[in-house]
Amino acid sequence: MQYSIFGKTNKQVSRIGYGAMGLGGAFGTFDEKEGIRSVLKFLEKGGNFIDTARHYGESETILGKALKEWKGDAPFIATKIQSHGEANTRWALPPNVETTFPKDLIRQNTEDSLKRLGVDFIDNMQLHLYYPTWGVSGYWLDELLKLKEEGKIGSIGVSMPDHRADLCLPLVMSGAIDSVQVICNIFDPLVLDCVVPICQQNNVAVIARCVLDEGGLSGFLTEDTTFEEQDFRKTFFEEVPRSMYMAHVDGLRQFVPEHAGSLAKLALKFLLKNKGITTAISSMHIEKFANENIEAALEPELSDEIFYEIRTKHRWVRNFYNKKYWQEENDLDRANKVEASKVK
């Protein structure tokens, strides 16, 4: 396992992190016992960074059950304050901070998370949304700082809601926070251009999520792949014709197995190559996923030449959240339908 220092905390965290969104059923039904086993397997293999959230259903509770069974050193736990009201889904319209995080919500959520996790200390508490219109100070930050002073949380961060990660830069440069969570993967590596270097300059940890593009970069998607009704991905891959998505994935197969043991490992190694990425999290609620993801850290590092080629020639920046959170048909939807009919 590879490790890095988490920002200003001086704590070591595994550079492959356990994303616990799947423990809440976001990717369909799963066996809770297997979910617990996957956490334990991750910890046994040397992983110690786990990211969850109040918004992830029963994720914190199931994670708490796993932590009770774990006999080794306590892992680094990061979770998030659940945003209030429609802010959970209306990502394209920046809400007021007073609406999203009413006074006392941060403390209430923190106390609830501590109880669900079965711990008395959370290493990293993040706001599940942040927009620069909120500024770099205010009661919401004061409440987080107070919890830090009380010893209930160890560090403060924000999770950026969509692909516009550069919106966090005013807060990063203010010195007020310890971490940011951002989307970063082979298809959308834009944070490597600006956000990650500025975080490094300000000693702010970077938590990379969606590193497998909700699993798409693993190569699992076919024209016939179906998703359960509650699966987060049910509409996620419908922003463009599947044939188009699959073609972009196929363009990466040339690097396997010479440079990575699988497409999923290639995607993870791409993130690990940049030392400014503190930890790269992916869903591991299935024990097999935990094993495969950790193995990526054991493979040789990508060469500078291959990393540069992937970063510059295989980026495919698009926002799949448009379809998921804005259901009204627009010009893009109609164009996609026309393209899909041509493919058929």
Care to describe what's here?
The protein has 344 residues and is α/β, with parallel strands linked by helices. It has a single domain (3-343), classed as NADP-dependent oxidoreductase domain (TIM Barrel, Alpha-Beta Barrel). Helix content is 36%, strand content 12%. It has 13 helices and 10 strands. The strands form 2 sheets. The protein has an 8-stranded parallel β-barrel with strand order 3-4-5-6-7-8-9-10, surrounded by 5 helices. A two-stranded antiparallel sheet has the order 1-2. Strand 6, helix 5 and strand 7 form a beta-alpha-beta unit. Helix 1 crosses helix 2 (59-69), helix 1 (32-44) runs parallel beside helix 10 and helix 9 crosses helix 10. The longest helix has 13 residues, at 32-44. It is globular.
Describe the protein's topology.
Layout lengths: L2 E3 L6 E3 L1 E4 L12 H13 L4 E3 L7 H11 L6 E6 L15 H4 L4 H13 L6 E4 L11 H11 L6 E4 L9 H6 L4 E5 L11 H7 L3 E5 L32 H9 L12 H11 L5 E5 L3 H10 L7 H10 L7 H5 L5 H13 L1
Parallel strand pairs: 3-4, 3-10, 4-5, 5-6, 6-7, 7-8, 8-9, 9-10
Antiparallel strand pairs: 1-2
Helix pairs in contact: 1-2, 1-10, 9-10
Key structural traits:
TIM Barrel; 13 helices; globular
Name the CATH superfamily assignment: NADP-dependent oxidoreductase domain
- Report the end-to-end length measured between terminal Cα atoms: 45 Å
What's the alpha carbon Rg, rounded to whole Å? 19 Å
> Would you tell me the structural class of the helices and strands?
alpha/beta
State the major sheet: 8 strands, parallel, barrel
> How many individual β-strands?
10
Q: Estimate percent helicity.
A: 25-40%
User: At CATH's second level, what is the architecture?
Assistant: Alpha-Beta Barrel
Shape: globular
CATH fold-level name: TIM Barrel
